[in-house]
Design goal:
Elements: H1 28-32, E1 37-40, H2 45-49, E2 55-62, E3 71-79, H3 83-88, H4 99-110, H5 121-124, E4 126-132, H6 134-141, H7 152-168, E5 174-180, H8 185-195, E6 200-204, H9 207-210, H10 212-232, H11 250-253, H12 270-279, H13 296-304, H14 324-329
Parallel strand pairs: 2-5, 5-6
Antiparallel strand pairs: 1-4, 2-3, 3-4
Length: 350
């Protein structure tokens, strides 16, 4: 995997971005155990009240290029009549927004309508995310005797398709889909149009700047990705589970304290490279909940650093070959030596 040549801005400067609460798309226990997971919000009341009205959906991602942390895909959806309102609320290409403004919008979106009756956002805009862990990304991309490599574009397409399918399974009347492209937009649009023939599909470069609904998805993905990285860095202390009081669980204990400065997570960030060098284990490398081993940055560092121990892996057996354990335990007819010493006997045989 060639690392991204154009990193996004760092998620924060100076003090970490500490929200008043974590959005529901960020689950510390799942992040810290290396899980890939999906969050689905409640269907907005405006859509429930108008089940046959046309709904538009937008999809975007955050964290495709970094060597650290998850990649997040998000979908946002609303009635087509609400589109102008999204732009007026301040949704835009998330990379051009400040961390504070992005967080404020997702915080408002995550609130229960009863908490802020003056805001129509939670009752009008729905959203869902899939957070792909570094372990999931690396396991798919690295070669294996059991499976062919699962490249990042295919993973991105499959994740997008899964998000759309999940929403359609809730009987939401999606009539238009807008997506920020991964790979050539023409072939990707044709692929999606064939899968979702009842919807009008548009796949465009810079869709997060062109379509407000994709801008909303962009904000959901970016804030989820940024806060997930803060959790993994130990800068955000997970809230105690209900009934636990203030005592954290063992997995939550790992995320307490001052945390680590990871930078933006991009290969071009000096703080990110400094973290990778300082935390490199000579045998195991890094925590695969945080580092993408399939990235060129990580692979090159493992191969070039003198402190690393080279591991020789056994070649996979070809068809018809037998392992040393099978040779020692097998019978002579199968080519093993297990039967050469006779059979076991008991006292009754004497």
């Amino acid at each position: 995997m060639a690392d991204s040549p154009s990193p996004e801005p760092a998620i924060s400067t100076g003090a970490p971005l500490l929200p008043a609460f974590l959005p529901p798309s960020v689950t510390p226990s799942k992040l810290l155990s290396g899980q890939t997971y999906t969050y689905v919000s409640s269907i907005p009341q405006s859509i429930l009240d108008n089940p046959t009205a046309p709904v538009m959906l937008g999809v975007d991602e955050a964290g495709r290029g970094p060597v650290l942390g998850p990649m997040v895909y998000a979908a946002a959806y609303c009635l087509e009549s609400y589109e102008d309102r999204i732009k007026k609320l301040g949704f835009a290409d998330s990379k051009k927004m400040t961390p504070t403004s992005r967080l404020a919008l997702l915080t408002a979106l995550s609130q229960s309508p009863s908490n802020d009756p003056s805001s129509d956002l939670p009752t009008s805009l729905g959203w869902l995310t899939t957070l792909l862990s570094p372990a999931t990304i690396s396991t798919g991309m690295l070669p294996s005797p059991q499976a062919a490599p699962y490249n990042l574009n295919t993973l991105a397409h499959d994740t997008t398709i899964s998000l759309i399918t999940t929403l359609l399974s809730h009987n939401v009347n999606v009539t238009a889909i807008y997506i920020d492209t991964v790979g050539p937009p023409g072939s990707y649009q044709a692929k999606l149009q064939k899968l979702f023939p009842r919807c009008k599909v548009r796949v465009e470069k810079k869709a997060d700047s062109l379509f407000p609904i994709v801008s909303a998805a962009s904000v959901c993905a970016k804030v989820t990705r940024d806060l997930a990285l803060e959790v993994l860095a130990g800068k955000i202390k997970p809230p105690p589970k209900e009934g636990q009081g203030s005592r954290p669980t063992e997995v939550e204990e790992a995320a307490t304290g001052q945390g680590i400065d990871l930078g933006s997570g991009y290969p071009g960030d000096a703080k990110t490279i400094s973290y990778l060098k300082d935390s490199l284990d000579p045998i195991f490398g890094w925590d695969d909940n945080l580092v993408r081993f399939s990235w060129a940055t990580a692979k090159d560092m493992l191969e070039k650093e003198r402190c690393c121990v080279k591991v020789e892996w056994a070649e996979p057996l070809e068809e018809g070959e037998q392992s040393i354990m099978g040779f020692l335990s097998g019978d002579t007819d199968a080519g093993g030596v297990g039967g050469w010493f006779g059979k076991s006997v008991g006292v009754a045989d004497f």
